[in-house]
Amino acid sequence: MYDTIIIGSGPAGMTAALYAARSNLKVALLERGIPGGQMNNTADIENYPGYANISGPELSEKMFEPLEGLGVEYLWGNVQAIEDKGTYKEITTDDGRLETKSVIIATGASHRLLGVAGEEEYNSRGVSYCAVCDGAFFRDEDILVVGGGDSAVEEALFLTQFGKTVTIVHRRNELRAQKVLQERAFANEKISFIWDSVVKEIKGDDRRVTAVELENVKTGEVTTKEVGAVFIYVGLDAASDFLKNLEITDENGWVITDDQMRTSRAGIFAVGDIRQKHLRQITTAVGDGAVAGQGVYDYIQNM
Length: 303
Ligand code: FAD
Ligand code: NAP
Hints:
Layout: E1 2-7, H1 11-22, E2 27-31, H2 56-69, E3 73-76, E4 79-84, E5 89-93, E6 96-105, E7 109-111, E8 127-128, H3 131-134, E9 142-146, H4 150-159, E10 165-169, H5 179-187, E11 191-194, E12 197-204, E13 209-216, E14 222-226, E15 229-232, E16 236-238, E17 268-270, H6 282-301
Parallel strand pairs: 1-2, 1-6, 2-3, 6-17, 8-15, 9-10, 9-15, 10-11
Antiparallel strand pairs: 4-5, 5-6, 7-16, 12-13, 13-14
Helix pairs in contact: 1-2, 1-6, 4-5
Bound molecules: flavin-adenine dinucleotide (FAD) and NADP nicotinamide-adenine-dinucleotide phosphate (NAP).
Flavin-adenine dinucleotide binds next to helix 1, strand 2, helix 4 and helix 6.
């Protein structure tokens, strides 16, 4: 019986583990991928205090390092369900069952699909959701980036070091991204914009992506643009399918908590991007993790 099992080892989960372990609790950190979560998908982090610039994988490593020394058990597993048994919780993974007095859900979010023809067919053959993983495959190519948020603009900037050109196609005529990123993109000679437009289809030959069909949402005009790669950044979906039985999410799957990261079920906490919240960032994930890591200690003391 663990005192707490933290599901997900992104920045929120790792910080929760740090705080819970420093309170001398028996802690397991359960993850289906690798430590770091979404941070592994970005090369440049410039808004994490203490670092002018650090790569996502490096920050992930720095957050993970101290956990082993504190006795946090790192378990690999894909969580399928949590059963609330009152004084304890049962977690079902692909490999079996685990029991714990409390749970911290830190499963974050995953990239949303565009849902157009060719997207699935050319996935990993020119269609990508991760510039830091795949950008270097497209040296001297014309690259298309879809979306207008922080991810699209930041990753478009990153892709300029590889691509001959980088074109951002956005469904409106105004970006959602932070101003500092917008200004950098507007000033970058390699980046151009196609406004008020959406991708209708991703086309290719028998090997890889060769073009996209775009539609101007204002005029209805359809055009074809030749590209060698399409990077898609159209937002995030909550990684919460496995929580349906608990009824702790809103209609979009984000977990509802109070300011102490408690859900409506005693002993079940949620932290980071998986929460219904305004600002999904590493700093806010880390803050949530600290609050919940301390919160489980208080919960267990008062059980
Ligand atoms: P995540 O990082 O999403 O981690 C969740 C973890 O849970 C993952 O490792 C996942 O494998 C695991 N998991 C999910 N479901 C299960 C399951 N069923 N069983 C087991 N494990 C599971 N933020 C910034 O502050 N600055 C930036 O510069 C920045 N750049 C970004 C660039 C990109 C391209 C992206 C995609 C995001 C960026 N962000 C940035 C946002 C930031 O990465 C997230 O806000 C942060 O990682 C959220 O942390 P988290 O721990 O809540 O969740
Ligand atoms: P996001 O902020 O939700 O932006 C998604 C973008 O995709 C929006 O511009 C949206 O258009 C567009 N879009 C959505 N659905 C679309 C569709 N079907 N077709 C075409 N376009 C579509 O998502 P994100 O950029 O991935 O960012 C997610 C979170 O991570 C945010 O909280 C962000 O702040 C954070 N993040 C932070 C940083 C950083 O701090 N440097 C970097 C990356 C990510 P509309 O604008 O019209 O809605």
